[in-house]
Amino acid sequence: MRVLDQLAGAIGLTAPAIPLSDIQLDTRLLKPGSLFLALKGHAVDGRKFISQAQSLGSVAVFYEDDGLFVPPDSVTIPCIAVPDLSGKVSLLAGLFYDSPCDKLKLIGVTGTNGKSTTTHLIANWAQLMGDQGAVLGTLGNGLFGQLTTSENTTGSAVSIQQELDHFVSAGVDVAAMEVSSHGLVQHRVEALNFSVALFTNLSRDHLDYHQTMDAYGQAKFQIFQHALPEHRILNIDDETGLKWAQEMSGSVVYGIDKRLDTHSGHFVYASDIKYHPHGITICIHSSWGDGVLSAPLLGKFNASNLLAALAVMLVLQYDFKTLCQVSPRLQSVTGRMECFGNESQPRVVVDYAHTPDGLEKALQAARQHCLGQLICIVGCGGDRDKGKRPLMAEIAEKLADTLILTDDNPRTESPTDIVADMQKGLQKPELAHVEHDRVAAISYALAKAQAGDIILVAGKGHEDYQIIGKEKRHYSDRETVMKQLGVSA
Known about the structure:
CATH topology of the largest domain: UDP-N-acetylmuramoyl-L-alanine:D-glutamate ligase
Number of domains: 3
CATH class of the largest domain: Alpha Beta
Largest sheet: 10 strands, mixed
Structural class: alpha/beta
Radius of gyration: 24 Å
Helix content: 25-40%
Shape: globular
Mean pLDDT: 92
Strand content: 15-25%
Number of strands: 22
Distance between the termini: 45 Å
Strand order of the largest sheet: 7-6-8-5-9-10-11-12-13-14
CATH superfamily of the largest domain: Mur-like, catalytic domain
C-alpha cells in the first residue's frame, strides 16, 4: 500500500493519490517521494521539521494533531493532521510494507533479563531445524549470525516493519524480537501480530522512566495484547509470571523451581539440571513429551532461557525429539556469560548483567562452574537509576570472593560519586578494590587469579563503547580480555 490516499483511508482520513517511495520518522533518512511522519515526541517535536522534509523531497506529511499546531505557510505539499499519530505509526508502516509480520512467524520476547539470549536461541534453533532464523534486538538485527548493529533494544515503529520486510525478502521463517518496556509504552509494536509472546521475568530496571515497579510490570504486560491466548508463554519461576499465568488460563508455562499442578495449558518443566565445565544438561518434562537436552551455556538462568526458547519452538510445532537432538549445537551469545581462557588460565566470563537481579544470576551461574575463587568486576552507569547502585554492590560482595569496583558508562556523572553510591551497599567497603579504568581493573583481576578461578566482568557484555561525559569512546571488555589472555573467542 504505497499510495498516500490508501494509507490515509486506512486510518479514516482523505488524501490525494500520490505514489510514495518511502515512509520515515527521521528527516535524516528522507529521500524524494517520502512520506514524513511528524510526531510530537518525548524529546523532539518532529513537526518543527516539516519545511525541511519538503526541501529534502518529501511529497506529503502526516503530523500529530493536538488541535493547536498549524504547518508553515511555506509548505506546499499535502500536510494531513492525524489524531494520535504516534499510536498509528506501526499500523501505517505495516500497511506501507504490506504487513510483513503476517508472512513469517514473529516471536515477541519481553522481560527484564534474558531477552537477548532467548531470542538468539530461538533463531539458532530454527536454523538447526532447517529453517531461516532472524533476530531483532540489543545485539543487532538480521539473519542469525549476520547481525548489523542496532541503536535500541526495540527499534522505531517504522524501522521494525522495514526490518521485517527485509526478512520476508530474505526468506526468513522465524524472527525472534526483543520487546522492551519502552517499545511497548511508546507504541512501537502496536500493529504487530505476534505468533508467540513470551515473558521471561521482572526485576528492578528502568525506574528512571517508569517510576514504579507496578508501572514497569504493566508496560511489559501489554505484549499479551498482541498474541492469541494459547500462544502466551510465561515463566512461573518469576512471581509476576506466576501471577499472570494464574490470571490467563490456557497460557503455556515453563519453570525450573515451580510447577502449576492445576494448570490447564501446555507446560515445559525442568526435572533435573546438571552443570559441568562446558555447559548444562537438562531433563525435560513437558506436554510434548519427556527428554534430555544439552547446550554449551552456563548457569541456572541460561537453563531457564533454554526452557523459554524450547517452549516457543514447541508452540511453533517443531518436533520435540529433534529439538533435543540438535541442542548441543546451540551457540552461546556474544557478551552473555561468554567464556574466555584455556585450562591453564583463569576462566574469564564477560556478561551484560547491569541490574541487581542480572548480576545476582550471573554470579550464581559462575559459582556453579567455579573450582576456585570467584572475582567480580562491576560498575554502574551514570545519569541512570541511582537506587540500584548499592544493591548491585551488596550482591557482588555477598556472592564473590573478591570485588573490584570500576566504571561502566559514567556519562556526565562523577565516577567517584557513582562508586561512592555503590560502596554504601557494602558491609566491608575497605575490602573492595576500586579501579576506575576497566582495562586496569581486568589486569588487576588477572594478576590475582589462577587456573580454576573465574573472573566475572559484568555490565557491558557485547557493547564496544564506553560513554564518558558526552563522548562515546571505543571500548570492549571482550577485546580487552582476549588481548590480555592472548586468546581468541
